[in-house]
Amino acid sequence: MDDPIESERSTDIDEMDISEDNLQKPNIFNKYLPFYDSVKRQGYDSLDEIRENLSRIIQLRELRPGFSHWSSKLQRFMSHYGLYFTKIDHIKIINLYVAVLTIEDLDFSHVKTCFDMLYDLTRKTRLITRDDLVVDWRLLHKWAKVILHNHDESYSLVSVPNDIESSLFYCIRGCRPYFAESATQEILDEFRPYLCPFDSAFSDTMRIFELFLPVHLPLNLHEKGFKLWLPEFLGIWESIYSNPGWELNMVNLFSLLAWCNIGYIDWEPWLPRIFTRILKSFSLPVGKLQVSLQQYHYSMSSVTTWIVAMLGNGSSCLQHLQDLFTAIKNFYHPSNSGKFQQDLISFLSKLAQAFVDRVHLERKANPVWYFTPPDAYRLTEQDITDFVNCVKECAFIAIFTKAYLKEAAKACQYLSMLRPELIVPPLVEKLFSSIDSMSEPHRFTSIMTCLASLARQIVRQAPHFSQGQTYVLPLLMAVLPGIDSNDFKKTAVTFQFLNAILMLVTCIDCSSAIHTRNDLTEAWGQHVEFDKLNVQFHIPNEDEVDFACEFVETFIYPELQLLNEKCSKMSTEERLRSLTLVHYMSIGCLRMVPRIDSKLIDNLVPSVAPYGSKYQTQYSIYAKQPQFKENLRMRLLIDVGKLIDVIVENHSDDASSIKIALKIYSLSSIYYGVFKHDADKLHKHFEAAKGSFINKLYGERQYPRFLMIERITLQCERFSLTNFQSLTEIDKQVILKLFELSIHRYSEVRRDAQGYLFSVLNRYLFSYQVIVDRIIELLNSPSDIDHDQIKGCLYILLGNHSFFLPTKHSWSMIERLWPAMARTTHAKKPTTQRLMDHINETIGKQFDTQALVEDTNDVSRKAAVDIWKPLDPVDLESRDQIRQQRNEENVQSYNNLMETLNSLLRGDSLTWRQQETTMSLMWLLLQKRVPIPSSCIRTFVDFLVHDNVELRKISEEGITAFSRLQKPARIYVEKTLGEILQRPVDVEECRPGDRDDNLWVTIDNYKPAKTQKEWEETCFLDKSYHGYYKWPKTIKYTMNKRERYTKDNMPEDVAFIYDRFMDTNFISKFTQFMVLDEEKGKISFDTRRFHMFKGLFRNYGLAFVDNFMERLYVLVHEKTKEKQEGSHRVAAEIVAGMIRGSKYWTIEMLDELWLKLTPFLNEVCANLGPETLSYWASCFKLGLEDEDPRRMHRPINYLRSLINTTATGNTFMETSRWYLVQTLTNLEWRVPSIWCMINEQAKELLDHPYKAIRERIAIILSSSLTFDVTLVNGQSTRHPNANKFLDAIRERLGHAIEIYEKTPLANVSGQTVEIDPEARKALNFIETGQY
């Protein structure tokens, strides 16, 4: 993913202002293709076909497979043709994808498709204005919430595509300029109540603000935009200095806001603070001391964009920037190495890049509609000169830093675009002075690398810099010694420089000019206008085409005949020679040969739309259609296919010949003149060259000619890559033959054939279906089958980076394939078992939950009609029945799959390793859309006490998921704050911190409910952000009442879990196994088990408590030393689950629970050990986390009692109690009276005799002061005051120092040494101050 800020400030240098039938943005390079007329004609036809099929799919309520497939065709269409549609169609297509996102329970793969398409459709912001399009921010936020905070994912109830987050961010970025003018206020109203600096919700909210707040609003809407929040957010940023993670989101937001609103925001008052924070973010060492690195570092793109946006119109920003460089200049020196150096050099290059982007945008002929700085704030020529002078000195130093040379060279490249006269001459002089330096060879390579990136600025004659051309010949001569056979790096850099110059300079014989000229004045490096490009393709004429055909037929047929007749009699070298000739002739001629006329294979995957396009053609680049006496593709497939059989059978050791024969065979099916890897290589080279040679400041379309020709070549190849994706009978036979060779007994044959098989399978849509039956047949075959065939089959299942069969989206295929993989008897050998493990691991990484029941909705169907036309109602009705049948078949396939895997687990045919694989597949298949078969739930429960530890762990995760699925519904209530408090309250104003209207959500003055009715009617707000910053207009909360399962109201799957956990023998065995599950030294509190126990106690109430209490005492009384740590861990996990799972219990139930828990916890706390303390701290932490302190007053009172207990004299026990009390930090600002009490008691122990206690006290005192934070327009009145505390400590410290200086610590009298108690206490206090 590229940098978000750089992407947002894109200057679109490739945009071409052309109008072709009112199309939005056609790809201009198509106009220069030799087959442009065909491309143009097919462009209109292809778009109509795509619109038709997308519309048909949605109207007929089918999403898989057609939606993703035809969306990818649209994406490919835009890649080839650009935005080759009118604005009206453009907007309709955008609205279609927005509408699809409104579908309930939309499959995540389709969600990702919508995100990707929306970004591609909206990224060219200048083409669509806010008047043309409005996107509902709430829709995108709904998906952001589902994707970024999906609790089901942690329970394995859903698996989302790996890169869906990146797609989401790009989509929001593209759509944000089109949020409604009311969006800013709506977003603020929605999310301001989540702002609490002590809670993780603050980071989540700032992330939402960064993503969603509109920053592209025009001047007339600024009052409804950033002016609603900027002063407030700057105040928050200034208030917090602890470098929280959300600060990065805030800086990113400020940066983009500044960029989109240059000249409309007065940053002047904030400049000192902004630059101070920037300097701090570098984490530079002070003297010999390394300043502790900040946990979170600002994005350099954000920082530099922000700085550049604040320059101009007499701003002091440039002076602050100069001061910053003065402060950090020494750290650019190569001798000052450290982690900070990467950020410093990145700061240089991105600063220069951002400045170039701003100059380009301000002077662009067709600016983006939201980028309209006032004339007075636009950068002047003097501003540009001053900026370059400010930055260049550090840039010149930075190029000698070995580790980040390329980044430093980029900085010089961007600066030279701005002022070549200030950058090029000094660098050239440095080069000349370094050429003869033997002691510093690195200087030469560094400067040469830098100059190579400045090549165009050197050779191009510009108004303010014409002398660059005079450097060309001296430079070309001077660098020749750099070609040094003993120094590869220097040689490579020299060639890179020579290539850069000579690509821009036309070399001609000027030898006769020496009599008249002694300088260079030819204007090298100039651009060429598109309309004067005059691309001249060589179109082979009729004679040349005839000659090519004759040549091929003359030489290829004899070789094929020779191979067929005498293959076995030929030597290895002769055979290889002959095959090599056929191979290269095939590569040369197959572009001329049409596809084999063969029947298309339909219904590989049923769909209401076709797979392939009606418009699949080979674009002719010949004066006449090449004519061979037969289709050479067919001849090659027949002859080479037979040849492969002969070689494999009789000459299996001839690996080279087999490899080339396989290549020819596969190329006959998939090759049409261009290899994908060649096109990718050309694209990579083009992008690198574009970065080196394009100067945005020269103006639009100012490309060197060679670069434009390279881009046209790339475009030509792209059209040849994607033709023919529908499978034919001939292609099917190719796949089947390659498959059989891929499972051959010789490993060399298998390996080569598999590579070509994957290439063919990737080419043709859904062609994997052809090999599924054969794979299943092999996996189910008897154990005496050839082991090499099985290995080949498993390697095909393992696939490669681009093909992986087991996770293809087809429930009918998975229903058959996964059980065959799980039960195959061939996985018992070590080699095949390792392969199966690798396959299973890859499934876990790549599997995303597939929808079982799919449908569209009215909104999406209406949008589908808009992009094409409505379908006939009769067709709609008939297809609806097919859709319902398909959904039913999917559900049946899922149930069959789960039942089959389950029966395998319950049987005795699988090894333990196979059982682990099968169980992990079942766990991966858990989902919440349809009921999970009861038999599967039974297996998960039974396997909690299985002898295999891995199966037990998977079972625990399964029970956790089932508990979530089975949890009774919550009852929600919505009230205003006034209704809750029963008095008028102003909720509009933001007054963060302590207020009268949020006292009631703290534990202060809370009186526990005495009746169940009172308990149920209490408004408990569990998340600690509630009420801190401001209140929402209405408060939605869960009623303090929840149904629980009882013996009389349990479904079968619930009852089974109940029966097992009511069995004391089962509980005993279960807990014993959990103790043994972790190895010594690797034991840690298992939050997964905590969630399992939480779910069990939440769903079943007190039912299991007595059984578990009995086991808890057994666990903490464990006498075997090796088991003590594990026993306490398990006990802590169970108790945490009890505390958290009981939140909705009745008062009576809670009283009963704590009547049993309190004596148990007393016993635990009286017998804590160093190995077990952390487990009980985790128990209380998770038990209290994200809970209303009033609801949790019982555990809070218990923790409070620990520090009110009489001191035991045992140092460890005292520190342990304070350590447990510290878990109250999870309640954050909502227990102020307790923090005051802790502060008062703890500060009296700062001079405690024992160091361990003093250290723990120092930590908890720091915690007690954490919540004394005052945000803008807020107050902190209830918590211990940090300033008063420090004043008191300062006073005590002065007094202690005075005592220590006056009173000797020890008095020696004869044989006796007496320690003065006052001096000892004073010294203890002084030492504690260091913590």
Automatic annotation (TrEMBL):
Pfam families: HEAT_PSME4, HEAT_PSME4_mid. GO terms for molecular function: peptidase activator activity; proteasome binding. Residues 936-1222 form the Proteasome activator complex subunit 4-like HEAT repeat-like domain. Residues 321-514 form the Proteasome activator Blm10 middle HEAT repeats region domain. One of its GO terms (cellular component) is nucleus. It comes from the Eukaryota. GO terms for biological process: proteasomal ubiquitin-independent protein catabolic process. This is Proteasome activator Blm10 mid region domain-containing protein.
